[in-house]
Write a structure and sequence with these properties.
The protein is of the alpha/beta class and 386 residues long. The protein folds into two domains: 3-224, Spore Coat Polysaccharide Biosynthesis Protein SpsA, Chain A (Alpha-Beta Complex), CATH 3.90.550; 228-384, 2-Layer Sandwich (60s Ribosomal Protein L30, Chain: A), CATH 3.30.1330.50. It is built from eleven helices and 18 strands. It is elongated. The chain starts with a strand and ends with a strand. The mean pLDDT is 91.
């Protein structure tokens, strides 16, 4: 199933008094919250429908803050919500099976919820996130109550709202973009005769419409957005051979024996251990999964380039390394004088201060594998937001 995620960000912000998509919420632009969750999800591409006033700023925010291989398009939206959604849907890939449309002003989407809605739409034709009405609802006319609906049948619609792409376009083309009956994407499908399936959402999935909503959102972040600290450990070992450069922590270590480490890449055993620790902290497997030695793309490659890729994988998980401790186990050569450069090399690659990185070297006093090879252990702390 190929899923295209559409984020609607073309609202005027009239009631807010400023552009809420580019406004900061807890130090981060509102649009980035939902964008990051779709990047984490199984969505295959992302289309953002922006207004003429904020399209340049949104592109700038993505360029500066987003690291992903997923295609992201930013287009100019329409005059109405429906027109923006339809323009974005028509910009999706020809391979698209399901479109999942989300209000960019709802920053508390989760990747799991996005995937649930898309899967439900693929199965049932259409789906939407909603929560049960907690309050009694009154129907009024001329200032008096005329009816009290059964609360057990009432749900409050949220987004994402998803549909099979072909059905959505077929439905939309039968409707006027200014049809007052179209209040959300689910109503498009309802008017076409498809009954959307409800995926129960969260009361935290609020829409930022007024300044009071911003205060509520800050409260939600304070309640549930505290960073999670996770620890990862990595270990690696490579055999020493003559005639290869010895690279450790991205630093070349010249030595009188002209020895280096054998491996498919540059065999930087310390960086390999660190990458495994980083991947382990966010449950992404190990370097063998991401960089198999059967793949010629990685033959002779600098492990520092692989480290850059692993850092991007953590970025997609809204995570980053806070500090790392690397232990290199080697009988030869002596490494003490190279350690300052190693610390600086790793710190620069991870965007950290040198004081956040510790590298130390030890021997096994002839009792272990060190001598025939070099081994490394790495431990890192990873901070995950959300």
């Amino acid at each position: 199933m190929f899923t295209s995620a559409v984020i609607l960000a073309a609202g005027s912000g009239r009631r807010m008094g400023f552009d809420k998509m580019t406004a900061e919420l807890h130090g981060k632009a509102v649009i980035l919250y939902s964008l990051e969750r779709f990047i984490e999800s199984h969505a295959d591409e992302i289309i953002i429908a922006a207004s003429e006033d904020n399209i340049a700023k949104i592109r700038e925010l993505i360029s500066e803050n987003v690291h992903t291989d997923k295609p992201i398009k930013v287009i100019t939206g329409g005059a109405t919500r429906f027109e923006s959604a339809l323009k974005a849907v028509k910009m999706t890939s020809d391979k698209c099976d399901v479109v999942s449309i989300h209000d960019g002003a709802r920053p508390f989407l989760t990747a799991e919820l996005a995937d649930d809605v898309a899967q439900s739409a693929y199965k049932h034709g259409a789906a939407l996130v909603a929560v049960r009405a907690k309050d009694t609802v009154k129907v009024c006319g001329d200032g008096v109550v005329t009816a009290t609906p059964d609360r057990s049948t009432l749900w409050l619609a949220q987004t994402p709202q998803a549909a099979r792409k072909a059905d959505y376009i077929a439905a939309a083309e039968k409707l006027d973009v200014n049809d007052p009956r179209i209040t959300d994407d689910a109503s498009v499908m309802e008017l076409y005769g498809i009954k959307p399936f409800i995926v129960e959402g969260s009361y935290d999935n609020i829409k930022l419409t007024t300044k009071e909503d911003i205060a509520m959102a800050e409260s939600i972040i304070g309640k549930s957005g505290a960073p999670k600290l996770r620890v990862g450990h990595g270990y690696d070992v490579h055999r020493l051979v003559e005639g290869r450069k010895l690279i450790l922590c991205g630093v070349e270590v010249p030595n009188k024996d002209n020895i280096g480490l054998l491996g498919h890449s540059d065999a930087d055993v310390a960086v390999h251990a660190l990458m495994d620790a980083m991947l382990g902290a966010v449950a992404l497997g190990d370097i063998g999964k991401h960089f198999p030695d059967s793949d010629d793309r990685y033959k002779g490659i600098s492990s520092m380039r692989l480290l850059e890729h692993v850092r991007k994988l953590l970025d997609e998980k809204n995570s980053h390394v806070t500090n790392a401790d690397i232990t290199i186990i080697a009988e030869k050569p002596k490494l003490a004088k190279f350690i300052p450069d190693m610390r600086e090399s790793i710190a620069a690659a991870l965007g950290l201060e040198t004081d956040d990185i510790n590298v130390k070297a030890t021997t096994e006093e002839g009792l272990g594998i060190a001598g025939a090879g070099i081994a490394a252990h790495a431990v890192c702390m990873v901070e995950k937001i959300g």
